[in-house]
Design the sequence.
């Protein structure tokens, strides 16, 4: 008896043209349908489009990676979570759970950190404008205050005198590393002598005590040598200031600015190749710092705590934005264009990044150059000026990443309300961490004078 | 610490010195006990006068000859010489002459032999000069017989108790002070009992075992020398050793030995008409202490030859040393890294840590269960790869290798097991750091490195399937040399997610995550006792009125740092880069100092450390009188309580709140517990102290003057 072959379900395999050509293999059809193992499509159904999704796991991994890279190289390391990068309460709380202090640059952020339960003694207070009330609160609560200018120095001194207690303060410094554009508008300049003048002024004050130095050399700094130079200059200034004023510097705050794995516009190489890892930053900084503080141990002076204010590199790739295509058109120059329900109102960083954009589902058809426009009635609302994508239909969803840094703090309410933000938790559950705004969000603070109420005239 | 006017000081010092010499005959340091013994010697006035003369003569000779004798050994020997010669000679010119001469000889011998014995055999000299001097006198008397009285005439048979055995024991004790009367001996025993219950117990036990041994070996009646058995047991079981079952057995064995020695030396000395004196005791003590002292220091019984005090204090110190320092033969090392690392293989590990390389630790870095990014196919994926490796002790680089390739994950280089390595030597200790990254060595052969200095980076060379760091202490400078036991000191052990336990000594097991405990300057500065600053506290007991007590740090002549209260009570303290520890509380009562010692007794300087434990002596606890009696009854040798500490930052008070729970467990389920709290405010100090128990409440507030 002959044996029958078992029945096999018939399969249709699409024939994809252009698989091989003289430029090599086709770029694999990339798509992203899930985040941390959680399918995105149902979330989009539930919370609406567009939708920000934060990955708790990724956030924690990044924070630990940063801490590991530095704490295995320098005995005392502190991470101050840069609130301005993303101050969604849930994001901040994840980082505080990971041991980060709060690094705030305004009264609003200070109060937000306090509301989240961060004690004042674990807040680093930066920024060029710290109102008197906030300064007094910071002094009373023992926050690390970094002075930006002399008027602020005098203000803190007056508060300290009034309260009758000596207040430890830090000085924000600016200087030229030779690698980055000096940000001379913040803090006291070293080369011009303003920084040492300020240190001396603090040294002579009975109400102030200089315990820390802070500087921030720039943002998205790709050259680790810039940080090495920064560490060297700050360590030198520390020695000089200690020598001149008899103070004891307890910490060096090197600010933030580490680049994230995001493609800066105008850079040729992909981020995987140009963006240094935390280990590379750490090695450059710690090597320079070890060299510059070598004599300290012999003199019995403790090594300073190294403070990091890393924001972007910790949060950027822990968040994606999911958006839907609302329409398409062919531009006069022949390029394909798609209109999305999210634009620069939600993606402020689209001005300088070429975000990675992937379809939520694998799409059929030949990829071609496409322009992605946002929903704003503004010419500049372009999410990507040029990206290779297969033909997009209305309702197709795209995943834009990484978007964790600055978008949730710099987003606009211009003609659109802001969408929901959800967090994929470590255990695979999904929690909303910010509800979608509604018209009420926009209008509830408005007050209507009685005289302006309807009926309206139809006269023209 | 008696308070005296400066003018009376030399006389008081002289009297104290003399009293202590009397007390030292029965291994006590207390001048009061000494005075008691001195009074008792008056039972036999002739001997008592001789003793006092001998003591003063020894003092005089040491002064005249400018012998810089430390301690009181020559005084004790002079005293004993005087007692014995005085008892054998009628009081006349020759009486004083012989005592003077014997004191001279014993002083010279004491001065000469003390160092010799200690340097050659680590033996205390004890009463050998007394024995030799007296024999010399007795030998001289055989040429020119003095108007000596038979010493046996001293003894009488008046019974004091209804048990002859007990009377004989008292008489035997009395014989050492030449007052061989039951009542006098009983009073001597009372003195010993007051000095130390355990020594008194040993005196009885040693006497019983020694006389029994002597009887079984065929000896005759031995009362005049039976104090030898007691002395042997007291010396071996409690004074020169930490009381324990082992030291008790050694004490009994010593007494048996003394019995045998008495029998044997009697035969030898009888033809020469020489008395045995303390010779059997000396022989047994030298034998035991000499042979036990030559072993590794860590075996039971633990000897305290350097600074013996009393069995109770010896035991208290030993308990604290064990609780804080771990095993004494283990090499203390710093964690050889920055940050938190995980143990992948501990001592006696299942893979490669087999004898003779069983004492070794393997480390890597992990987040949860993961020790690498991605799929772990490349060395660089591993968190620990390339992380700096630090010297775990100050040492010299004696051997190294830096040019072997790092194996790919999964592969091993069995031709070069250790891979790239640095071998450090410090004294007799050799420490190996292995599997280092190729080309990462930052040290050269022969270079001296300080503890914590970066020496290389973690790699995967040699027999290393995945990147990790191997640490071991070994016996010599050869690769593959047998390992020796070591531990990590001053570490923080991650107990659950965020909590970190401080451990003074730690021998981690697989899976444990640890880091070095670092000093938080502000915390250290707030707790550290200062010699410049007097801490004034307002001490208040619940329901009582308050009083002012001050604490001040001082430095003793011998370089010990102590915290002293205005009442004279004090405790020693030691500070390292990572921790402050108090110990050796003296006997004077002071509730504030006790409160301080309970609350602050062991304080790590790491602000991250949130819990730890300690075993302070139970006498610090403010026990109610009933419990105190019960404790003395159930734990006659003193007890230590179990203290668990927790510390957190107390935001509203702007201070660290250090809480301690101190539990004393007496037998039969009797337990007592109290809670201490200390608020340590940066820039101010220990601002507030609190003690709470079911029946008492103490509170002390720091008075801030400036």
Sequence:
């Amino acid at each position: 008896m002959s044996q029958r072959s078992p029945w096999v379900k018939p399969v249709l395999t699409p024939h994809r043209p252009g698989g091989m050509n003289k430029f090599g293999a086709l770029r694999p059809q990339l798509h992203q349908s899930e985040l941390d193992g959680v399918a995105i499509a149902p979330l989009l159904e539930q919370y609406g489009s567009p939708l920000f999704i934060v990955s708790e796991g990724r956030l924690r991994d990044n924070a630990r990676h940063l801490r590991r890279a530095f704490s295995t190289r320098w005995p005392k390391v502190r991470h101050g979570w840069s609130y301005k990068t993303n101050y969604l309460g849930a994001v901040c709380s994840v980082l505080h759970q990971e041991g980060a202090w709060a690094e705030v640059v305004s009264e609003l952020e200070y109060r937000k950190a306090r509301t989240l339960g961060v004690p004042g003694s674990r807040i680093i207070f930066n920024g060029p404008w710290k109102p008197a009330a906030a300064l007094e609160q910071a002094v009373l609560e023992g926050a690390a205050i970094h002075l930006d200018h002399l008027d602020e120095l005098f203000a803190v001194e007056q508060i300290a005198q009034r309260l009758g207690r000596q207040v430890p303060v830090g000085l924000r410094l600016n200087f030229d590393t030779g690698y980055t554009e000096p940000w001379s508008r913040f803090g006291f300049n070293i080369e011009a002598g303003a920084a040492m003048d300020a240190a001396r002024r603090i040294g002579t004050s009975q109400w102030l005590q200089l315990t820390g130095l802070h500087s921030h050399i720039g943002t998205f700094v790709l050259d680790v040598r810039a940080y090495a130079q920064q560490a060297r200059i700050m360590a030198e200034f520390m020695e000089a200031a200690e020598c001149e004023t008899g103070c004891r510097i307890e910490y060096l705050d090197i600010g933030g600015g580490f680049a994230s794995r995001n493609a800066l516009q105008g850079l040729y190489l992909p981020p995987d190749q140009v963006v240094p890892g935390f280990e590379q930053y750490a090695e450059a900084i710690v090597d320079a710092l070890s060299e510059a503080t070598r004599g300290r141990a012999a003199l019995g002076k403790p090594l300073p705590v190294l403070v990091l204010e890393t924001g972007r590199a910790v949060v950027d790739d822990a968040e994606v934005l999911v958006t839907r295509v609302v329409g398409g058109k062919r531009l006069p120059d022949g390029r394909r264009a798609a209109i999305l329900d999210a634009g620069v109102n939600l993606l402020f960083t689209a001005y300088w990044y070429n975000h990675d954009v992937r379809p939520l589902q694998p799409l059929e058809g030949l990829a071609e150059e496409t322009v992605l426009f946002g929903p704003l009635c503004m010419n500049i609302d372009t999410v990507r000026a040029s990206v290779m994508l297969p033909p997009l239909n209305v309702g197709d969803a795209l995943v834009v990443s990484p978007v964790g840094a600055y978008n949730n703090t710099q987003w606009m309410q211009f003609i659109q309300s802001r969408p929901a933000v959800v967090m994929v938790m470590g255990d695979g559950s999904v929690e909303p961490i910010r509800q979608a705004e509604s018209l009420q969000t926009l209008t509830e603070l408005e007050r209507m004078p009685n005289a302006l109420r309807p009926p309206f005239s139809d006269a023209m | 610490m008696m308070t005296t006017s400066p003018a009376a000081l030399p006389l008081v010092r002289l009297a104290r010195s003399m009293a202590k010499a009397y007390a030292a005959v029965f291994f006590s340091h207390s001048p009061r006990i000494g005075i008691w013994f001195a009074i008792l010697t008056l039972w036999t006035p002739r001997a008592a006068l001789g003793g006092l003369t001998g003591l003063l003569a020894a003092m005089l000779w040491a002064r005249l000859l400018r012998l810089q004798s430390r301690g009181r050994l020559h005084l004790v020997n002079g005293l004993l010489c005087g007692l014995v010669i005085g008892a054998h000679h009628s009081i006349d010119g020759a009486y004083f002459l012989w005592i003077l001469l014997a004191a001279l000889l014993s002083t010279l011998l004491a001065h000469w032999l003390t160092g010799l014995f200690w340097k050659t055999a680590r033996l205390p000299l004890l009463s050998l000069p007394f024995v030799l001097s007296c024999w010399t006198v007795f030998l001289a008397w055989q040429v020119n017989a003095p108007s000596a009285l038979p010493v046996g005439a001293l003894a009488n048979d008046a019974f004091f108790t209804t048990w002859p055995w007990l009377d004989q024991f008292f008489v035997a004790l009395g014989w050492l002070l030449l007052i061989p009367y039951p009542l006098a001996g009983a009073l001597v025993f009372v003195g010993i009992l007051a000095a130390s219950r355990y020594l008194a117990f040993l005196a009885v036990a040693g006497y019983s075992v020694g006389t029994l041994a002597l009887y079984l070996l065929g000896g005759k009646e031995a009362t005049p020398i039976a104090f030898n058995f007691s002395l042997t047991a007291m010396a071996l079981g409690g004074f020169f050793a930490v009381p324990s079952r082992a030291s008790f057995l050694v004490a009994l064995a010593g007494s048996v030995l003394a019995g045998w020695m008495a029998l044997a030396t009697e035969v030898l000395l009888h033809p020469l008409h020489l008395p045995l004196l303390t010779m059997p005791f000396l022989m047994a003590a030298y034998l035991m202490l000499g042979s036990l002292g030559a072993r590794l220091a860590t075996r039971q019984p633990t000897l305290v030859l350097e600074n013996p005090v009393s069995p109770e204090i010896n035991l208290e110190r030993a308990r604290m040393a064990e609780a804080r320092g771990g095993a004494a033969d283990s090499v203390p090392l710093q964690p050889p890294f920055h940050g938190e690392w995980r143990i992948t293989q501990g001592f006696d590990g299942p893979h490669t840590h087999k004898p003779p390389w069983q004492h070794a630790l393997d480390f890597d870095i992990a987040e949860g269960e993961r020790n690498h990014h991605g799929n772990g196919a490349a060395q660089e994926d591993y968190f620990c790869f390339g992380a700096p490796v630090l010297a775990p002790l100050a040492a010299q680089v004696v051997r190294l290798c830096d040019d072997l390739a790092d194996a790919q994950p999964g592969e091993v280089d069995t031709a070069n097991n250790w891979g790239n390595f640095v071998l450090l030597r410090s004294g007799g200790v050799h420490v190996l750091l292995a599997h280092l990254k190729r080309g990462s060595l930052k040290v050269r052969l022969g270079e001296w490195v300080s503890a914590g200095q970066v020496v290389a980076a973690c790699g995967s060379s040699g027999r290393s399937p995945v990147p990790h760091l191997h640490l071991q202490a070994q016996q010599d400078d050869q690769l593959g040399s047998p390992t020796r036991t070591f531990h990590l000191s001053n570490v923080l052990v991650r107990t659950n997610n965020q909590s970190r336990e401080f451990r003074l000594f730690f021998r981690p097991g697989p899976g444990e995550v640890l880091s070095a405990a670092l000093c938080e300057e502000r915390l250290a500065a707030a707790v550290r006792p200062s010699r410049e600053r007097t801490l004034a506290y307002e001490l208040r007991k619940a329901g009582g009125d308050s009083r002012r007590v001050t604490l001040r740090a001082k430095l003793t002549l011998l370089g010990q740092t102590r915290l002293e209260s205005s009442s004279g009570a004090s405790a020693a303290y030691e500070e390292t880069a990572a921790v402050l520890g108090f110990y050796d509380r003296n006997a004077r009562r002071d509730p504030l100092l006790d409160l301080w010692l309970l609350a602050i007794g062991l304080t790590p300087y790491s602000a991250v450390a949130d819990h730890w434990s300690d075993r302070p002596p139970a006498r610090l606890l403010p026990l109610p009188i009933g419990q105190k009696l019960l404790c003395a009854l159930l734990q006659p040798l003193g007890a230590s309580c179990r203290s668990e500490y927790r510390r957190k930052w107390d935001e509203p008070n702007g201070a660290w709140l250090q809480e301690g729970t101190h539990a004393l467990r007496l037998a039969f389920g009797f337990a007592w517990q109290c809670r201490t709290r200390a608020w340590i405010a940066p820039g101010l100090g220990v601002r507030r102290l609190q003690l709470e128990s079911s029946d008492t409440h103490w509170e002390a507030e720091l008075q801030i003057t400036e």
